[in-house]
Design brief:
The complex is a heterodimer of chains A (351) and B (303). By secondary structure, chain A is mainly α. Chain A is built from 14 helices and two strands. Chain A folds into two domains: 68 residues, no CATH class; 249 residues, Orthogonal Bundle (MetI-like fold), CATH 1.10.3720.10. In chain A, α11 runs antiparallel to α14. The two termini of chain B are 25 Å apart. The chains are: A mainly alpha (351), B mainly alpha (303).
């Protein structure tokens, strides 16, 4: 599809008529006067200038996305120079966090972030898979729309509201019901020991799991929907039960996409700030017990950034932000590649 | 991927010609077991949502009153007070964010769909947008802090608006692109065939046709940033009083909820619940509008 009128010929002369647009040929092939249509078109500008200007503006806006990412990256690097110079790579393997004497290390925060995120995935992934299987394969048609609407609502609740709910509902439940139960039944593992205040790594993981569930389950649902029906029919025709059909025909075909969806959930969990800050206890300490209070990369920034005195303190916090940025970018990039690999041929869907 | 042979199926029948009864029972039990598990997990997922919503409505509705919408926060120890300034502040910040995020997002989406098809640059931009979508909001907050607040030497509504605006861009870009891609080529060709310039085709024909979907994308992005707290912590900062100036710290609803939620006062907890209810209702109205728009558009069923 050519997009522009022929702006090259200012006046169609008789000898250029054969190569001129067909409208001229059809209407007045021999007449020396330009055709009515051509004369009208000639009085109007070609539109090439406007077209190019429009394309350029759109291109600039599109490239601004690059600029934003680069700018975040460069700003984080320039502002964390001080801390990078002072601690080097050891910053990420040191346990010290002493703003008074200016001694900083990010290990407790990295531990807290990884522990809560992986625990959250451990809780959320099986549930999300169950929901996705239910929604795509088992659910009666009338129920499908309300349930997916509900899970999407779950995704729309702001994290601060999750935090509020966690502080006033989940924390007492953890302290009085679930915590003692876990201590009694699984206390021998060493993961559920020590004083249980209700706030801590486990509570943070549970609220994180609730928050990333809708993301993982709706993505997984999309990926499973993208599996062609012929696969299901083929497996069923061989005499498989429904579960065998789901396992062989659906799950196996979409496993790369599911891993991608899980990674996207992980990316969200790593960067989640508010709800975690409100229930994790905010204590920079590495402890085996999941009841113990912890600290994550994001929540240390949220808590201490506006009170950080001294350039080194601030730059250490920004370096933590830089680490968080890089890790989430890597996780997200990997996840996107995997999801793309699976859903590329599938029809587009509004997120 | 989909062409690999299925080995597992042949196992039950290859050993003996007739599948044994025990095996059949095992398969059938497994089938029902997994079905039950999947239903159970759905219930487990829906339960917290219902719990959160019910508890929120119960707590929020009992603390909502007229003063909540008309008064500014009361000092510690006094009862009453409201979040009027936070609601207005959130409105101002979100307006600023939309002013920046929506045009850039839509323009980038138009580039991807109309000009960039098949180009490497477009793929790279698409990928970057997806990655930007996953950048933690707190990181966005500290970058905008370093860029604007450190230069200005004080927190400002403008900085908050910029932070949220940037967060809106990738979502809007991707939905705009997806919606434009669903517009049939014949519509574009019809416009171009009538001699309409390409830019005019994109603006008046393609964008117009896809507008319900694009509005959906904008509302989704709006709903997403409306509840963001982390990027506002160091940019808008919050304010206990009325503030309409763009270069002053300004109150925001999520920020105020956070401050009140971690405070030790019951009265403030009550306000936090009321604020959460208002925030959730705002977001849900947006999401529901999205549903209505998405189901009503010219492209119904086209996506």
């Amino acid at each position: 599809m050519t997009t522009e009128r022929d702006p090259v010929s200012p006046t169609p002369l008789p000898n250029v008529v054969p190569v001129a647009p067909s409208e001229d040929l059809a209407s007045q092939p021999i007449n020396h006067e330009p055709s009515v249509v051509r004369a009208f078109l000639n009085t109007r500008g070609s539109g090439r200038l406007a077209d190019n200007a429009f394309a350029t503006v759109m291109l600039i806006c599109a490239c601004s996305i690059f600029v934003i990412v680069l700018f975040i990256f460069s700003i984080l690097i320039t502002h964390s120079k001080l801390s990078i110079a002072a601690f080097g790579l050891k910053f990420f393997s040191r346990q010290a966090w002493d703003p008074v004497s200016g001694d900083f290390g990010a290990l407790p925060f990295i531990y807290g972030t990884l522990a809560t995120s992986f625990l959250a995935l451990l809780i959320a992934v099986p549930l999300a898979l169950g929901v996705a299987v239910f929604l795509t394969e088992l659910c009666p048609k009338q129920l499908r729309a309300p349930i997916s609407f509900l899970t999407e609502l779950l995704a729309a609740i702001p994290s601060v509201v999750y935090g509020l709910w966690a502080v006033f509902v989940l924390v007492p439940i953890m302290r009085d019901v679930i915590g003692p139960f876990l201590h009694k039944t699984l206390g021998w593992t060493g993961f559920f020991e020590g004083a249980n205040f209700g706030v801590g790594l486990l509570t943070a993981s549970i609220i994180l799991a609730i928050m990333i569930l809708p993301i993982i389950s709706s993505l997984t649902r999309d990926i499973m929907t993208a599996v062609p029906n012929s696969q299901r029919e083929g497996v069923l025709a061989l005499g498989a039960t429904r579960w065998e059909m789901i396992r062989i025909g659906v799950l196996r075909n979409s496993r790369i996409g599911i891993v991608g969806a899980v990674l996207l959930g992980l990316g969200r969990a790593l960067g989640e700030t508010m709800a975690v800050t409100m229930v994790i206890g905010n204590h920079p300490e590495i402890s085996k017990s999941l009841f113990a209070p912890g600290y994550t990369l994001a929540s240390v920034i949220a808590n201490e950034f506006s009170e950080a005195t001294g350039d080194l303190y601030l730059s250490a916090l920004i370096e933590i932000g830089l680490a968080l940025f890089l890790v989430t970018i890597v996780v997200n990039a990997a996840a996107r590649l995997m999801v793309w690999a699976v859903t590329r041929g599938a029809p587009a869907r509004v997120a | 991927m989909s062409t690999q042979p299925v080995n597992n199926l042949s196992q039950p029948t290859s050993a003996q010609f007739k599948p044994s009864r025990i095996n059949n029972i095992r398969r059938s039990v497994m089938n029902h077991f997994v079905t039950a598990l999947s239903i159970l997990s759905t219930i487990l997922v829906i339960a917290p949502l219902v719990a959160i919503l019910v508890y929120l409505i119960y707590k929020g509705a009992s603390s909502l009153n007229f003063a909540f919408f008309t008064q500014i926060p009361a000092p510690v120890g006094e009862t009453g007070g409201g979040m009027a300034n936070s609601i207005v502040g959130s409105g101002i910040i979100l307006f600023l964010a939309s002013l920046m995020g929506i045009p850039i997002g839509i323009a980038a989406g138009v580039y991807l769909a109309e000009f960039g098809s098949g180009k490497f640059l477009a793929t790279a931009i698409r990928f970057t947008a997806d990655v930007l979508n996953g950048v933690p909001s707190i990181v966005m907050g500290i970058s905008i802090y370093s860029l604007i607040v450190l230069q200005q030497k004080h927190f400002s509504a403008l900085a908050g608006g910029v932070a949220l605006g940037i967060m809106m861009v990738p979502t809007i870009t991707r939905t705009t692109e997806e919606m434009l891609a669903t517009v049939p080529h014949s519509i574009r060709e019809a416009a171009l065939g009538l001699g309409v310039p390409k830019w005019r085709t994109a603006v008046s024909v393609t964008l117009r046709t896809a507008s319900p979907g694009i509005i959906t994308g904008c509302m989704l992005a709006f709903a997403r940033v409306a509840g963001e707290t982390a990027p506002l912590l160091f940019t808008a900062f919050g304010n206990q009083f009325w503030s309409f100036r763009l270069n002053e710290p300004i109150a925001a609803l999520p920020l105020q909820i956070y401050v009140y939620a971690i405070s030790p006062y019951d009265e403030w907890h009550r306000l936090a619940w009321a604020g959460s209810l208002v925030l959730i209702v705002m977001i849900m109205v947006a999401v529901t509008l999205v549903r209505i728009f998405a189901n009503r558009g010219a492209l119904k069923g086209g996506s």
